[in-house]
């Protein structure tokens, strides 16, 4: 029997989930087809630019999924399942205050953490956990009922968890066990045919559609699966031309004349899906739920802590200007003659482009020089330099070192909440006079018994490692300005 390493398991897992989700949500298949078309066209028009943030093979194969669970126990089990595929928890996202609608969840994302593993297959799963102890959304009685309901179910069977543990310990599995792991793991995220308790689901839905999707059923499922596209604005336009209704806004940074940074996301609207309901009198009958949708993303350069602070400032300024002028400036596209796509012409997009043009460097070199973006460094061709200590900026300016942008591999709370909110069936309820429940990266790590990595530390390590390798190859030391986390 042959051995299947974790990265090959991960790639196979992503493919199987994609096939399963495409069968369940046919519009997702259309989304993948259009994404591939856009990527092919962009790569043909600008081959070098298309691969600036990853090979075209990586970009076209890339996916991120999203699931939702109900408790720390379930999240800890998720960590075991995804750990089998070489995916670790990275980042903490609090969506409870990031949306106007009721979204009572905190989240992390499971993904590979090293450059080599990300290049092999960068599959990620954004994983949200319900917070029934948050009294802004759940009174004590309902919160206790939710906790009891979640405690009574088992999302992942013992065989799956045992195989996952074995894969973690061995860095992979023999092919028979690998096949069984893939079969069980894919099945665990398949939409269940079990009837939904109508009254219980609708009770939770009045609080939050997200809460109902998590604790109103006895299983979990892929909530959305997301391809990566090189031009999200063109994809948005082509999807609408095919008659698929997209949400009103592309979430995240605007399209502008500078480098792509962080993450832009959009989706088609959640569709009615037939489900079987169990009613109070014991009868069963057909119904529909609207919880799953198709998301697509475009990834840019990772921003440093200073860059993220700048990003937050730009968001705040955009909000301030929109409050003062809800119609926004009368500007049609990124440069006045860009593609006339509906999502580009919204007041928010027009306002954000104006704010960004004034507040962020419009070149990669500007991001690097101001310490706003994360870059790794390689030695330029035929580079020769005398020994001793040299400034990083001088080495880059002289072509001795070449700055390569580091792709943003993570997520944005406000964007994630915006996608969730735009696909909800209702606003839900929130009582701001009640106290919330404190969560942060450290507490969530403690609750699930697994260390959740700080993404900024991972980006910083990539930069540091690249500089150390370059210095060793050139036989010099490199003087840099420190770029660290906020702590």
Q: Could you characterize the architecture of this molecule?
A:
With 487 residues, the chain is of the alpha+beta class. It has 3 domains: 3-299 and 411-450, Uncharacterised protein PF07063, DUF1338 (2,3-Dihydroxybiphenyl 1,2-Dioxygenase, domain 1); 303-362, no CATH class; 374-406 and 454-487, no CATH class. It is 44% helix and 16% strand. It contains 19 helices and 16 strands. It has helices at 6-24, 26-45, 47-50, 56-61, 72-83, 115-120, 140-151, 158-170, 175-188, 198-207, 209-215, 232-241, 305-324, 347-359, 364-369, 392-397, 413-422, 441-448, 455-474; strands at 3-5, 63-69, 88-94, 105-111, 124-130, 172-174, 196-197, 224-227, 263-268, 273-278, 284-289, 294-299, 375-379, 389-391, 401-405, 477-479. The strands form 6 sheets. It has a 5-stranded mixed sheet. The protein has a 3-stranded mixed sheet with strand order 7-10-11. A hairpin with a 5-residue loop joins strand 10 (273-278) and strand 11. The longest helix has 20 residues, at 26-45. The chain is globular, with a radius of gyration of 23 Å. Belongs to the 2-oxoadipate dioxygenase/decarboxylase family. It is an enzyme of class 1 (oxidoreductase). This is 2-oxoadipate dioxygenase/decarboxylase. It comes from Naumannella cuiyingiana. Residues 325-338 have a biased composition (Low complexity).
């Amino acid at each position: 029997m042959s051995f299947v390493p974790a990265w090959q398991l991960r790639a196979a897992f992503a493919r199987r989930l994609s096939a399963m989700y495409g069968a369940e949500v046919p519009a997702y298949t259309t989304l993948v087809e259009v994404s591939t078309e856009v990527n092919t066209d962009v790569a043909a028009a600008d081959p070098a630019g298309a691969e600036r943030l990853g090979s075209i093979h990586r970009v076209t194969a890339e996916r991120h999924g999203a699931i939702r669970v109900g408790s720390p126990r379930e999240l800890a089990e998720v960590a075991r399942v995804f750990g089998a595929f070489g995916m670790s928890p990275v980042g903490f996202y609090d969506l409870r205050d990031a949306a106007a609608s009721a979204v009572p969840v905190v989240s992390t994302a499971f993904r590979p953490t090293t450059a080599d593993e990300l290049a092999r297959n960068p599959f990620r799963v954004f994983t949200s956990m319900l917070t029934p102890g948050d009294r802004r959304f759940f009174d004590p009685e309902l919160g206790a009922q939710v906790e009891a309901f979640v405690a009574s179910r088992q999302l992942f069977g013992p065989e799956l968890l045992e195989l996952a543990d074995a894969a973690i310990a061995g860095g992979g599995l023999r092919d028979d066990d690998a096949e069984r792991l893939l079969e069980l793991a894919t099945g665990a995220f398949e939409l269940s045919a079990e009837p939904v308790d109508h009254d219980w689901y609708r009770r939770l839905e009045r609080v939050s559609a997200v809460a109902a999707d998590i604790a109103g059923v006895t299983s979990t499922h892929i909530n959305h699966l997301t391809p990566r596209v090189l031009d999200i604005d063109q994809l948005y336009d082509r999807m609408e031309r095919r008659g698929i209704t997209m949400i009103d806004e592309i979430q995240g940074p605007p399209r502008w004349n500078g480098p792509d940074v962080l993450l832009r996301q959009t989706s088609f609207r959640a569709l009615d899906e037939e489900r079987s309901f169990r009613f109070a009198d014991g009868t069963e009958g057909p119904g529909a739920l609207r919880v799953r949708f198709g998301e697509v993303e475009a990834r840019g350069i990772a921003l440093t802590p200073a860059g993220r602070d700048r990003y937050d400032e730009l968001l705040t300024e955009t909000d301030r200007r929109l409050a003062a002028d809800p119609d926004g400036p009368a500007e049609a596209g990124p440069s006045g003659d860009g593609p006339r796509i509906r999502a580009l012409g919204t007041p928010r997009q027009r306002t954000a482009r104006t704010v960004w043009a004034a507040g962020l460097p419009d070149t990669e070199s500007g991001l690097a020089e101001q310490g706003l973006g994360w870059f790794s460094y390689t030695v330029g061709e035929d580079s020769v330099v005398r020994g001793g200590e040299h400034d990083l900026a001088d080495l880059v300016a002289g072509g001795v070192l070449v700055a390569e942008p580091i792709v943003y591999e993570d997520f944005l709370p406000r964007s994630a909440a915006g996608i969730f909110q735009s696909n909800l069936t209702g606003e839900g309820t929130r009582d701001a006079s009640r106290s919330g429940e404190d969560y942060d990266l450290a507490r969530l790590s403690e609750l699930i018994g697994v260390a959740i990595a700080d993404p900024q530390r991972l980006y910083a390590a990539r930069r540091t490692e690249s500089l150390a390798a370059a210095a060793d190859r050139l036989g010099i030391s490199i003087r840099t300005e420190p770029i660290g986390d906020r702590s």
